Batch of 2 targets.
Target 1
Amino acid sequence: MRAAVLSAAGLDNLSVVELPDPEPGQGEVLVRVRAATLNYRDLLTVEGGYGSRQKTEGLIPVSDGAGEVLAVGAGVTRFKPGDHVVANFFQNWLAGEPTEHAMHSGLGGLLDGMACEMRVLPEHGLAHTPAHLEHAEAAALPCAALTAWSAVIDQGGVKPGDVVLTQGSGGVSVFALQFAKMAGADVIATSSSDTKLERLKSLGADHLINYGDTPEWARAARAAVGGRGLDLVVEVGGAGTLEQSVKAVRLGGAIALIGVLSGANHEFRLPLVVTRKIRLEGVTCGSYEQFEAMLRAIAQNGMKPPLDDTRFGLDELPAAFAHMREGRHFGKIVIEI
């Protein structure tokens, strides 16, 4: 089989090589990978950004992938050849609170990922693809969608009538918008691009803010909903946006901390958090139990993940990462395998 393999940290050290075809063992499933999608985390991993918390030499990168079952090992009962499947992000986080063991089972980090033609995974690390989705759409779900689901539904507890703010048009933010609308919330979407804001509006955003024109966007966000403040901010910016998020949420509101796209270190006034009883909660993807719940909701609502217009082949993976770094994409960047 062909696979993208990292010889050392850095995009220049990523190449496609021939490897022996894998075979499934006891309790394992052999998947013909048809599509993968990129997360910002994948770019950081290729660049060695996770240090000792990742494998570098010999790593097959990219956490998210989907395809069809080629063969199953002894004892497998939930899958058969021909089934369309999608891999869960944390292979060993099955339910409940995360453990050290579970958090060390992320694909494309300490474990090999999905940038390959074939992949053997344990039965408990796969789920059936919703019937209305193609492989590329299913491949968009394991990391970004589940992170957004955790932030909005499981940890955020969003309900009809709530107000949620999403930042930008990356995968997590777009999924958060879709899930918030699915839950009956009003959504304020921010972006520095009016073109992208229009696309976010087409996905259901109720209020739009161009943060390039309005860098102090907290006041505009509160004004958009009559000054009451927001129930939840899905925070992917990090240092550059956290202060505005704190100012935007209502008394007792929540901020789901996910990304650090604008920096990792920031000083802001802690009394604002304390005196307004704001909940700051980190979100790191989710369990297999959450993944299956999300997939059921997606199937029931016929939800479609937005995909970027530009697609790449496995040999074009470095170019796909460069496309991600440029930030001109909308939705998930697809690698067709």
Note: The chain has a mean pLDDT of 94.
Target 2
Amino acid sequence: MRKPFIAGNWKMNLNHNEALSFIKDLSLRFNNKNGITIAVCPPFTSIRSVALAIEDEKFKSKDFNIKIGAQNMYFEKSGAFTGEISADMLNTLGVEYVIIGHSERRVIFKEDDELINKKIKAALSNGLKPIFCVGESLETREKGNAVEFTLNQVRAGLDLISPDEMAQITIAYEPIWAIGTGKTATPEDAQQMCNSIRSKIEALYEKNVAENTVIQYGGSVKPSNISEIMKMPDIDGALVGGASIKTDDFLALINY
């Protein structure tokens, strides 16, 4: 059975002090009544501080079960790659998850499918769990090519990834036109795409792999729509942006 997974992508928000205040506030009011997997993905500058703060709060309360993720990484082990972060560097900070292929990386920083595939392989080889993002632009959707486009991203990103490795990968469907815009794909639209993604995974691997792959939806997810989204049979969680840096909202999402 797939376990629901809510991950907060803080993006370029919350400095070191703000991040620690957020974790403290979250711990004081924390309640994971659904028993789901929860992760926060801070900026690189706050990862270690957030990880230590979470461990401290876990010592006080075993119920404070928050995982640490990173927002990006590079596929090389080390070298002359100014500004980049390796999988090994993340590993030593206590990072468990890493977001790869987010649309903002694809669109703003021109990351292509080949690079994203290399990052996924590097993450897996270093014991990190990729949150692999896919999704189409509004223009692509309006042309009627959303499914084909997104499934091509799935295929390319998973090139030469083994069935066993798939157990470590979460796929996040994030329609670009719904990220940070206030627009949200209807639960039915999101379900249709997530079902198509699951069918594609079955075609690439086998039914058992597809049935066990966690697929998140992301794109203006908030307390007012999370319950309807999570009712969809092929949506197993959410990759959340803005609502993940507001304590009230994040708690509401966790306890949808």
Note: The radius of gyration is 17 Å.
